[in-house]
Amino acid sequence: MKFGLALDFATAERTMEQQLDRYLELIKLAERYNFDSVTAGETYPNRPSSGHVPSPLLVLAALAPRTKLRIGTGVTLLPAWHPLKLAYDSAMLDQISGGRFILGVGVSTAALQRRFGVDTERVGDFVDDTLAALKALWNGADGFEGKYLKIQGGIGIQPVQPGGPPLIVGGTLRRSTERAAEWGDGWFASTNYTFEQVAQQAGRYREAMERRGKEGGAVIVNRLTAVAEDEGEARRVAGEYIGRSLQRYALMGMMGPDPELPTMPSDQLFARSDERWCLVGTPDQVAARIQRYADAGATQIQFRLSPEETPPEVAALSIELLGTQVLPRFS
Question: What pLDDT, on a 0 to 100 scale, did the predictor assign at position 214?
Fold first, then answer.
């Protein structure tokens, strides 16, 4: 079992330079406790907000010389990228980081697909071809032609990692797990995937791998996390910061069809969603929940510790408790 940080780099309060400086202590603390990686998510907001960023590869390039951790996206939204540009930039970032880059990818929403000019009726073919093209170009192919894409010429630059950065494919459909098994190195569960979805998709991914005669493959799960010595304190923090993050997902319709969810106060929404979406509680309680994910097939947890401007000292306490009392149980 591996563990990483999933940090919310976007902020309306600071410049990105200031935000990177703000998080550096958290990243160094994670290094001390043998965390594996740090990841940034991608989104394209219409107004200033906290959360994910529109340029995660740029953020990770700035972060690469500041940490020894692996760096990755959780996730890059493929319809926002031309596959050829993503192949170039990923190869460059793998070189900048000395072979420490992990590319997590997702399909995104129909609204974002339309915004970037991708045919929503054929987005599945676009994603399939993108994954196949990335693998081909990273392996030195002189172009690519699929059902949706035709790319002329190779990229002329190769990643440090043979075959390119690990490619982790997200999605809640069966087709997502088939993609992960066919072209990827693992399957990724985003913040808004329930425990039940994680367990189902992890099983589908393993089945898809077996049909192809493949072994290994990561199952990486992003979870909103708050840890404290006292359960009441952990839940208080989660009710404020994690609850506000869950409100964002509910307003976007990404937590299911229940019409009450977007109108709930943050603490109530957290209390209703806690067990299916979060890792909150004392070290013993969080360790038990992680074991539940491990039993369901997860091989890595990305702890999302800084949603909605969570104070750094609060996130640091979670890292300390995870590092001293939780991670050693899974070594």
Answer: 97
* pTM for this model (two decimals): 0.97
The full set of domains in the chain, from first to last, is 2-244+275-330 (3.20.20.30)
Please state, as a whole number, how many other Cβ atoms lie within 10 Å of the Cβ of residue 319: 24
Ramachandran assignment for 13, one of left (phi > 0), alpha (psi -120 to 50 degrees), beta (any other) = alpha
The span from the CA of 108 to the CA of 92, in Å, is 24
SS3 289: helix
Residues whose CB is less than 8 angstroms from the CB of residue 228 and which lie 6 or more positions away in sequence, other chains included: 234, 237, 281, 282, 317, 318, 321
170-188 per-position pLDDT tens digit:
999 999 999 999 999 999 9
d(CA 34, CA 300): 13
Arithmetic mean of pLDDT, 22-37: 98
Average pLDDT, the chain: 97
Question: Is the peptide bond preceding residue 75 cis, with omega within 30 degrees of 0?
Answer: yes
The answer to whether 90 touches 75, Cβ cutoff 8 Å, is no
Is residue 3 within 8 Å of 327, Cβ to Cβ?
yes
φ, ψ (nearest 5 deg) of residue 325: -120, -10
CA–CA distance, 316 with 30 (Å, rounded to integer):
9
Q: Could you say which DSSP state residue 239 is in? A: I
Q: Which residues contact 251 (CB under 8 A, 6 or more apart)?
A: 262
| DSSP state at residue 51 | B
For residue range 260-271, list pLDDT tens digits in order: 999 999 999 999
Q: Which alpha helices (DSSP H) does 116-242 contain, by range?
A: 123-138, 174-182, 195-211, 231-237
Closest residue by Cα to residue 234 from 303, 285, 301, 291: 285
In whole angstroms, give the CA distance from residue 2 to residue 300. 5
- DSSP-assigned letter for residue 238: I
Q: Bridge partners of 143?
A: 152
Q: 331: pLDDT confidence band, cut at 50, 70 and 90?
A: confident
The number of beta carbons lying within 10 Å of the beta carbon of residue 65 is: 9
How far is Cα 277 from Cα 269, in angstroms, rounded to an integer?
11
- For residue 123, give both structure tokens: 């987005």
